[in-house]
Amino acid sequence: MKLIHVALAAAALVAAPAAFAQNAPVPLSAYVDKNGFIDVQALTCAQLADTYQEDADALSAWYSGWYNGLAKKHYLDLKKGKVVEHELIVYCKANRNKKVIEGLAVVFKDERAKLGIKMK
Length: 120
Fold this sequence. Notes:
This protein has a single domain (28-115), classed as 10k-s Protein, Hypothetical Protein A, Chain A, CATH 1.10.890. 64% of the residues lie in helices and 0% in strands. It is built from 5 helices and no strands. The model is unreliable at 3-21 (pLDDT under 50).
C-alpha cells in the first residue's frame, strides 16, 4: 500500500511542472510584430487574460490613453482606471474568444450605465 502512495506522489510531482507550464503567463512581447508593435485592435481577451499583471497594467494604460485621446480628455482617473481594468480582465477571462476592444466597449457601456451617462 505504501508503495502505491509513493508511486502516486512521484507521479504527481512529475505532472505538476507540466501542468504549471501550461498555465504560465505569456508576456505581451510574444505578440509583437517584426517591428516590435502589438496590433491592439487584434489582441484577444485570451491573450490579455493570460499575460503578466504588469503587462496587463501597461496595456490598460495604453487603451486608457487611446480612448481618452479620442474623447479629447486630458486627464487620468486613476481609481476608475483600475476598476475598469479589473472589470475588463474579468470579462476577458469569461470571454476568451472576444477581442480586447470588444471587451472594453462592454465594460465602458456598463460603467456609463452605472453612472447614469447616456450616449448621444
